[in-house]
Amino acid sequence: MAKTKYTKIDGSSKEYWGLFGITGFLALLAPLSALYIFVNGHHVTGMTNQVPWGLPIVMAVYLIGASAGSLVLSAMSSVFGKKEFKPFSRMAALLAILLIIAALMAIILDWGRPDRLMLPFFYFQPRSMFSLNAILYSAYVGLCGIYLWAMFNDKGKLEKLLGISAVFLAVLVHSGTGAIFGFVYVRELYNSPLLSPAFIAAALSSGTAMMIIMIHGTFKLTGRHVDAKLIYSLAKLMGIFIIVVLYFIFVENLTRAYAPKNYEAVSFLLFNGGKYTNLFWVGLLGLGLIIPMSIVLNPKTGKSTLFVLIAAWMQLIGVVIERYIIVIPPQVLPLELFPDKQITSTFLDGQIASYNISFVEICYSIGLIGVVLFGFIVCIKLWPMLPTEAHYQELD
Description:
The chain is 69% helix and 2% strand.
């Protein structure tokens, strides 16, 4: 197989600087929105005492998953022998770094005290998933950077070793993120041993979908050739990952419904939860999983670039909805502090809480995506991240 040649983009055209300005503006929304929330307090968001984790945490979990999925795809050639994906290894590793940085921005904002950024490292608590994840995320960013350096310098054996380590750490990082929710035993819709592997499955599907969109868009805008078979191969891989996601969703909800103590919570999510029920059945299962899976695994539509791109966008949106369903509905349900007892007070005990996304949360979330896109177009101008062309080649 011919050696892949990577180059920078010229970045002198009006189109590039126009895209630079647009993504730069979007990226600027993140610090401006964060400053507004920090100065005025979290009450300007849709979050409350009953629902303290809102859209920023949804985006954090989503971005961490997309980062892990991107890193696994970056290691496909060096670790799993999928040499046809080698041309995309550098840009996938770059996106993994940018996505985790954006995710950490969301988490730091949610703390409310970004000046305490270093405290988790000085006061380590091994029984706290938050404390453990602070170490995991830091190690993850560092390893991604070293892995990208090894690819730049053609360190074959080191690249493979770092690739194996990167895949292991990517799985560990997102397992830890899933454990943050899965270990919360007092909320029925959180507590589940399946959340960690389910998070990884969704990370792989969303990471693949994002790479399909980024590869197609980047190569088209830079005038570089990419073999359509590579896109279709990634689309088929995405379809397989979606099947795994569907399996975990089915098993997890079936397991929950089996336990009598979870009847009310499961009934709320699947049947009586209003917008949350609609998001689950229509947004997640229908538009986010079943339809894109059907598109990419169909012999005809799975070999149409337009249909594959539509499926990839639907999958990305579907995983955002999946993260939203994981984070928000368990919080709106009242806690059962005293089993078999009726609680009455003036503090909304026993009542279903409400959460409505605020405009500033939307701006901040768009800003996080802007940070990733802005960082990406700057990096491909500064460093040789993109192959001159990408052809589908069978293994020798």
